[in-house]
Amino acid sequence: MVSIVKNFRGSAFKVFLLLLLSFFAESIAFACGWYPEAETYRFVLFNPQLANRRYEPFYFTSYFLYDYENLENREISNRRNIDEWIKYTQFKGSHQAVDYILNYVTPEDFTENMALPQEKMFAGNPFIEHLIRTKNQETLQYLQFAKNCEVVNSIYNEDPWSRQKTNDTKEYQELISSGEKFYSQTKQPFLQFRYGFQLVRLARYMGDYTLGKQLYKKYIEPYPSQSIVYYWAMWHYAEMHEDKAYQNYLVSQVFDNAHDKKIVAWQFFNRSHTQESLKYAKTNHEKATILVMNELHNPGRSLSAIKRIYTIDPTSDVMETLLIREINKLEDWILTPRYTEFDPAVNYRNQNLYDYTPKERNEYTLKNYKKDMIYLAEVLSFIEHTPTKKIHNPALWNVMAGYLAYMNNQFDKSSNYLHQTLRAKGLTKRIEAQAHLIRIMAELNPKQPTQQTDATLLAELEWLEKNKTELYHYKGSFSRLMMALTNRYWDAGDIVRASLCHSKIFDFVRFESNFFSEKDSISYEYDTRAPGMNTEGMNFYSSYLFFLDQKATPPDIEKLLSFLDKNLKSKLESYLAKDLLKEKDRITDLLGIKYLREDKLYQARDAFKKVSKEFWLSDNESYKAYLKANPFYTNFYQVDSSSSTHTSSFTKFSLTDSLIHIIERAENLKEPNRAKWYFLAANCYLNMSYWGNSWIMTRHWWSRNEVSDYSYAEHPYSTYPDNANYYGCERAMNFYLKAQGFAKDKSQKALCLRMAGRCKFYSLLYTNQFYETIYDYKKGREVKNPYYTTNRYYEQLQRQYPEFYDELMFQCTSFDTYYTSLLLPETP
């Protein structure tokens, strides 16, 4: 047995809390303040990119936009502009030559090159050479004018330290005057149109909206065109218009016809004026576009609007995008809570659930779940009853129906739609991959697996891995698939396969909610346990280990370990178990932890004994660092830290084994000094608590944030069964009281009461009984604590042993004297 006598230096009991805080400051806190973004836990398996990629920025997401750069749409509009230039100039060269002049040559470089001899201009750019060769001077003049406009319109031409533009009105006015002059001189409609665009833009950036609208009506509006420049000019006109409803109409036209402006047009669209805007629409397609923009802003249910859009514009190219948005919404509303236990990532109802009790929150969730399932059936019905002849891509509509049927627990119907998908017109590799992904979930029978179903599941998983480039964010999709399978197997009672599937998750998080539990994947039942944080100091986790810690019992883990030790595994089992086979030491350690939390010391020792010594000493684990201190020593105020001069390191096995031997001696009726052994056992239990040096025996992490003024019992950092011991030191307190009962003299009994009082102090903190007043956040002030209780062991110490009270309570160094007396004869 290691020496358990330590020296402790201090001054008074009054500095206890200060010393305690000092201890916290020196300890490593594993829990950090990071919390996963909603998009990281939003459950999405249906690939939004199966829809029209031109609407990619507006796919359903918890972010402001799905895609902020919109590069593909920008390239489409840029290519339209270049095509117009090539047609006008009859240039036979490459798009790149035109693109370089229009978009990459700076105004300064353009001016400098125009002053060079013709053979040196723009390093022999073929487009410029063509303009020179064809003596197209007025086009070169327009290009120079456009580059001059870039100078005053550029955001880079502003003083970052000033609120005013560095360009004064005079510069704009001079350019507008020159532009109108050039407009009147040219007879080319192509150039006139572009001069008109430049004039409108100059007036807008100058801030003269009245002039800008006049110029638009004079040079642009009378000449409607399919030119991209027409819609670029319309965008500037829309921003200057004071009629909000008409603005909506204009930006809807820009949205529909200028793909590079889709994002800014969407941002500018005002939903509150949608109905008023419809009166300006000249065709059903224009009406549909306004309605589409309204729904692309809508995080809630859009089916009624989708039906309206379909009625007036059944061939709309955005119909499939809108339907996939609804599918992705339904995934979030139904599957995010079902499979991750987080609330939906997008709270479109704007309901604050933080003040809800667990029961209220569960009732609210169940109510919305039922409504969402009814809505899901409505969306599925619309897809099913849409005439095939009006569908752009039958394969996509079949796979949408198949997924919704799966979500509606209509597995046979889902399988039928998915088989139709693979034979339907419009099938692509991505749609095929989506169908395979859904088939795995729809055709899985977790309650009655057979060799045939296992072989089919393995074949599908291998197919997905082989075709991973066709899947939407493969790692994320595969992880969400494994999360779904985890839940399906867990609900079927197959703990082993649920654990195997969870170990295949790459980068997905799960909430540690105990608000509700799922039955048969379709209903929730209230769970009376409070929500807890059992893993990394946060209420979420991603590791299979924390999944097991949260969900599994010791018998469950023993069953998993027996499976891993089994030599004969099916091909599917071997595929799923590949990663966990390397984790047997860690899983066995968890088994010991769970037994230790239940104070089943012999079972815990047996589990820890099976863990390899290499695991305990590995640099990848924390045990080597956090089991250095003496677990059988503590004093009035502080504990040993990992930096202790104590040279003997423990493993979980050796510590548990030592504790068992100590307790056996304490309970031996023939033992002459039972008080000593009970005291040592109490020290160990105290050190295995949150307040001790060996907390890692039963926890994965430690954080100073666990210490708070509010009740641990009402707002726990975990829902482990030993919280009263871990935070409240109840086991340690009971052993100190047993030691008191066997102590030989009053001084020893007084010491035992003093240490029981220390444990009681933590217990009062844990149960919110320590502070006489507490802060009431609703009232905004301190109020009397109805749970306040005094420390009865300190009171008992003062009442029964007054001659030792002051020394034990206020003289820190007195511990050594009393402790040494209790231990004699010296511990072997």
Descriptive report:
This protein has 828 residues and is mainly alpha-helical. Helix content is 57%, strand content 2%. Helix 37 packs across helix 38. The chain is elongated.
Residue fraction in strands? under 5%
Euclidean distance between termini CA atoms = 6 Å
Read across the widest sheet, the strand sequence of neighbours is 1-4
Q: What structural class results from the helix and strand content? A: mainly alpha
What value does the average pLDDT take?
A: 86
How would you summarize what this structure contains?
This protein has 828 residues and is mainly α.
What's the layout of helices and strands?
Elements: H1 16-26, H2 38-41, H3 71-89, H4 95-104, H5 107-114, H6 126-133, H7 137-153, H8 169-185, H9 189-206, H10 209-219, H11 228-240, H12 244-257, H13 262-268, H14 274-277, H15 284-296, H16 303-312, H17 319-340, H18 358-385, H19 394-407, H20 411-421, H21 429-442, H22 451-466, H23 474-491, H24 495-502, E1 510-511, E2 516-519, E3 523-526, E4 540-541, H25 544-551, H26 554-565, H27 571-577, H28 584-597, H29 601-609, H30 613-617, H31 623-626, H32 652-666, H33 674-687, H34 723-726, H35 730-742, H36 746-766, E5 773-776, E6 781-784, H37 792-800, H38 802-810, H39 814-823
Antiparallel strand pairs: 1-4, 2-3, 5-6
Helix pairs in contact: 3-4, 5-7, 7-8, 7-9, 8-9, 9-10, 9-11, 10-11, 11-12, 12-13, 12-15, 15-16, 16-17, 17-18, 17-19, 18-19, 19-20, 19-21, 20-21, 21-22, 23-24, 26-28, 28-29, 29-32, 32-33, 33-35, 35-36, 36-37, 36-38, 37-38
